Automatic annotation (TrEMBL):
This protein's encoding gene: gluQRS
Species lineage: Bacteria, Pseudomonadati, Pseudomonadota, Alphaproteobacteria, Hyphomicrobiales
All copies of domain Glutamyl/glutaminyl-tRNA synthetase class Ib catalytic, residue ranges: 16-284
Similarity comment: family membership: Belongs to the class-I aminoacyl-tRNA synthetase family.
Keywords, comma-separated and alphabetical: Aminoacyl-tRNA synthetase, ATP-binding, Ligase, Metal-binding, Nucleotide-binding, Protein biosynthesis, Zinc
Residue spans crossing the bilayer: none
Enzyme Commission number, as recorded: 6.1.1.-
Descriptive protein name: tRNA glutamyl-Q(34) synthetase GluQRS
Example GO molecular function: ligase activity
Pfam families: tRNA-synt_1c
EC category: ligase
């Protein structure tokens, strides 16, 4: 995994990527992130890539993918080469998960979200991860190999979890990365992967979680700079650990502020935030959107 893959361009030192999920229409938050990527790439003469994060087969749609590509081109966002689709690289994610399992760093978990939530809610002040989800209490961590295999052979549904304690022991040292917030000089940050506990890295409904697919894709595409919203800032600690465990390169990270609605809430597809298509249908131009984002975020796009 340490070699530079065929997806990477050896002639370009700085590589950026915008990586939307085709599970709905793009909104202003996506537009800001895409244009912020472009701004940084242009500033250093870097290359801009597009990745389609479609590992969630139940929610991802080719119609949404076509729509987001159309919206990005209308916005003025351009990229090099064909988009990379995660759905075409599932075998790579599974192979990485199997490598971790063979080293005793990942284990099958048979607990449902509801079971975990009920068990943790019954305990006083049970800790939560940065996303506000109860940390996994470890019910399946110490199952014997025989019991795990018996459950799997019986058809029990299961997911892969990272054994955080074993993973940190194997690394044996603090992990760091460079962080650049908007307009700030880079600072070296010490990763805090333990905040996620035994994180899910392979889901029941997909061969991999967002976390492991993301770090493998960034490596395969030769990404040097990851530009994304502050809502993913805390995930960087877990990503840094996975990079170390799998022998992957570590990009620089740029986490930007979020575009908020009139109530100060993060824009979201699930909350039916106005999409770029809605705005375009109302007669809003791409230039007006760029100007509005510049005004809101106080940077020149």
């Amino acid at each position: 995994m340490k070699e530079r893959s065929e997806d990477a361009d050896p002639e370009c030192r700085s590589v950026f990527r915008f990586a939307p999920s085709p599970n709905g229409y793009l909104h202003l938050g996506h537009a800001y992130s895409a244009l912020f990527n472009v701004k940084l790439a242009q500033a250093c003469g870097g290359k801009m890539l597009l990745r389609i994060e479609d590992i969630d087969s139940e929610r991802s749609r080719r119609s949404f993918e076509a729509a987001l590509i159309e919206d990005l081109r209308w916005l003025g966002f351009n990229w090099t080469g064909a988009p990379r689709r995660q759905s075409e690289h599932m075998a790579d994610y599974r192979a990485a998960l199997d490598r971790l399992a063979r080293r005793g760093l990942a284990y099958p978990c048979f607990c449902s979200r509801g079971e975990i939530a009920r068990a943790c809610a019954a305990r006083t002040n049970w800790p939560r991860d940065p996303d506000g989800v109860f940390l996994y209490p470890g019910a399946c961590r110490d199952l014997s190999v025989g019991e795990r295999n018996a459950r799997i052979e019986a058809g029990a549904r299961w997911s892969f979890r990272l054994d955080m304690e074993k993973a940190l022991i194997e690394i044996g040292k603090p992990l760091t990365y460079m962080e650049f917030h908007e307009g700030d000089a880079g600072v070296k940050v010490t990763a805090e992967p333990s905040a996620w506990g035994d994180a899910l890295i392979g889901r029941r409904d997909a061969p991999a979680s967002y976390h492991i697919a993301c770090v493998l894709d960034d490596h395969a595409q030769g990404v040097t700079d990851v530009v994304r919203g502050l809502d993913l800032d805390a995930a960087t600690g877990l990503h840094r650990l996975l990079q170390a465990l799998l022998g992957l390169r570590t990009p620089q990270y740029h986490h930007h502020r979020l575009v908020l609605d009139d109530q100060g809430r993060k824009l979201s597809k699930s909350k039916s935030s106005p999409s770029l298509r809605d705005l375009r249908a109302r007669g809003v131009s791409a230039a007006q959107i760029r100007e509005e984002l510049s005004r809101q975020m106080q940077i020149a796009l």
